[in-house]
Write a structure and sequence with these properties.
Blueprint: E1 5-9, E2 12-16, E3 21-24, E4 26-31, H1 40-50, E5 53-58, H2 70-83, E6 87-92, H3 103-109, E7 113-117, H4 131-143, E8 147-151, H5 155-168, H6 175-179, H7 182-199, E9 202-205, H8 211-222, E10 226-231, H9 240-246, H10 259-270, E11 276-277, H11 307-318, H12 322-332, H13 335-340, E12 358-363, E13 390-397, E14 400-404
Parallel strand pairs: 4-5, 5-6, 6-7, 7-8, 8-9, 9-10, 10-11
Antiparallel strand pairs: 1-2, 3-12, 12-13, 13-14
Length: about 425
C-alpha cells in the first residue's frame, strides 16, 4: 500500500493513510508491569504504544509487594515520570485485614480504582479478600467514588479441584481448565455483583471468559446495579484445542474455554454487552512457562501489543462492515475503558478538546504476528504465527508520534504522564 503521503499546509501536517482507520488511541484496562522483575514500566509501555495503546491501567500486584497504601502509589507515580512511554492510570489494592481503610489516602494519591481477588493466588502478592471483608471493602470504594476491579473465581471450588486434578493427571494441559470450570467463574461473579449492589459500588469484573457472566451482569444492571466487565483477546481467539497445542503458554486465569464460549463472547460483543476488551498483559518469561506439570507454571501471557490488532482485526474478519462488531470493538478498547475509569472526558474519543491520542489501524488479513518483533521483555506471544487481521501503522500520544511501523521509531521514556479520575 506504500508510504502515507504527507503535506504541510500552514503549521498543520496532513497525512494520507489510504484505507487504514484513524481511531482514538487505545486504552488497555488491564496491564501488569511488575508481576515479575523482568518487565517494568518502560518495556510494558513501549510495547503498548507499538500496539496502538496510548494509556494503560496498571495493576497493583507487583512481585516486590502490592501497591496497598498512598506511599506506594506515590512511588509508582515517580516511576511513570521517569520511564513511561504511554500515559498510565494506576490501581491500588485493598489488603485483607482492614486494608479498605487505605481507600481514601490512595484516592487522594491518584488511583482511579482498586483491584481485589476472590480467589487466593499468593499470600504475599495476590491474596483473597473474603466475603465478609468484601462488604467493608466495597463500602469504602463507594465512599471515595472509585471503581473496584475484581478477579471473580470461587475460591473453594478451585482450591478443591486443584488438589483433585494434581493427583489425577498433572501433565495434561486441560487439567488447568478442569480446575476452574465455568461455574467457578459464574459463582465468583454472583458474589461480587450482589455485594456491589448492596453497597452501591461501581464494580468492574476482570477478564471474563464465559458468556454466562455477560448475561448475569446484564440482569444486575437492569436491576439497578452499576456493573461493567471486560473480556480479553485470548478468550476471543483460543479454545481448548489451542491449549493442548500451546500448553503452559496459554495457562491463564480464568482458563481458555471450549469453542462455544469463544463464539458466545463474540456474540455478546456484537450485541453491545461487552463494554471493555483488555489484554491482561502478564509478561512472564518462558522459563516460568516450562514445567511439564501444567499447574506449576505461572498464569498469564503478554498481550498489550496485540490487544488492538487481535481484537479489531478479528472483528473485521468476522464482519467486514465497520458499522457492526468492528465499531463496538473499537469502543471496547477506547471509549469504554476511559469512561469506566473516570477519564472519559479527555481520553478514548476524537472529539474536539480531547487529548490528541490516535492510532492508525491497517486492516491486513495476511498480517502474521511475529513474537520476535514485539517489544515486551517477555520475548514471546501466544499469538505468534496467527493471522490476526491487521496491525498498527502509527501511534500518537498527545499529538506526538510515539510509534512508526515503517521506521520502527518508538517514543521516549518519561513522555507518559499519570492519568487521574476527573469525576
Amino acid at each position: 500500500m506504500g508510504e502515507p503521503e504527507a503535506a504541510v499546509i500552514g503549521s498543520v501536517t496532513h497525512q494520507d493513510f489510504g484505507d487504514a482507520y484513524v481511531l482514538p488511541g487505545a486504552i488497555d484496562a488491564h496491564v501488569h508491569c511488575y508481576s515479575h522483575d523482568g518487565e517494568g514500566m518502560f518495556a510494558a509501555t513501549r510495547s503498548a504504544v507499538a500496539g496502538g495503546v496510548t494509556t494503560i491501567v496498571e495493576m497493583p500486584f507487583d512481585a516486590t509487594g502490592p501497591v496497598k497504601n498512598a506511599d506506594l502509589v506515590k512511588r509508582k507515580r515517580d516511576i511513570i515520570t521517569r520511564e513511561a512511554v504511554s500515559d498510565v492510570a494506576l490501581l491500588g489494592t485493598l489488603w485483607p485485614g482492614g486494608g479498605w481503610r487505605e481507600a481514601e489516602p490512595m484516592a487522594e494519591a491518584g488511583v482511579v480504582g482498586y483491584k481485589v481477588s476472590l480467589y487466593h493466588t499468593d499470600s504475599d502478592r495476590f491474596p483473597r479478600v473474603d466475603d465478609a471483608e468484601l462488604l467493608d471493602t466495597m463500602a469504602a470504594v463507594t465512599g471515595v467514588n472509585r471503581t473496584l476491579c475484581v478477579h471473580a473465581e470461587n475460591n473453594e471450588i478451585v482450591q478443591h479441584l486443584q488438589r483433585v486434578e494434581t493427583e489425577s493427571d498433572p501433565l495434561d494441559p486441560l487439567t488447568h481448565a478442569r480446575t476452574r470450570p465455568p461455574v467457578s467463574e459464574s459463582l465468583g461473579v454472583l458474589t461480587a455483583m450482589e455485594i456491589a449492589a448492596d453497597r452501591g459500588t461501581r464494580l468492574h469484573l476482570c477478564h471474563m471468559s464465559i458468556p454466562r457472566a455477560v448475561k448475569l451482569a446484564r440482569w444486575w444492571n437492569e436491576d439497578g446495579a452499576d456493573i461493567s466487565l471486560e473480556t480479553c483477546p485470548h478468550y476471543l481467539t483460543f479454545d481448548e484445542d489451542d491449549m493442548i497445542k500451546q500448553g503452559a503458554r496459554l495457562k491463564i486465569n480464568p482458563p481458555i474455554r471450549e469453542r462455544e464460549h469463544v463464539e458466545g463472547l463474540w456474540s455478546s460483543l456484537a450485541d453491545g454487552f461487552v463494554p471493555v476488551v483488555s489484554s491482561d498483559h502478564a509478561p512472564w518469561s518462558l522459563d516460568r512457562k516450562s514445567d511439564e506439570q501444567i499447574l506449576k507454571n505461572a498464569s498469564g501471557a503478554p498481550g498489550v501489543e496485540t490487544l488492538v490488532s487481535a481484537t479489531l482485526g478479528q472483528a473485521l474478519l468476522r464482519d467486514p462492515d465497520p458499522r457492526g462488531v468492528f465499531d463496538l470493538a473499537v469502543q471496547a478498547v477506547t471509549e469504554g475503558p476511559a469512561k469506566r475509569f473516570g477519564f472519559g472526558d479527555r481520553k478514548g474519543s476524537l472529539k474536539p478538546g480531547f487529548d490528541a491520542d490516535l492510532m492508525v489501524f491497517q486492516p491486513d488479513d495476511s498480517y502474521v504476528v511475529d513474537e520476535a518483533q514485539l517489544h515486551s521483555n517477555a520475548g514471546w506471544s501466544p499469538f505468534d504465527g496467527y493471522r490476526v487481521g491487521g496491525y498498527i501503522k502509527r501511534t500518537y500520544l498527545r499529538g506526538r508520534e510515539v510509534w512508526n511501523a515503517d521506521s520502527g521509531a518508538i517514543g521516549e521514556s518519561g513522555y507518559g504522564v499519570l492519568v487521574e479520575r476527573s469525576d
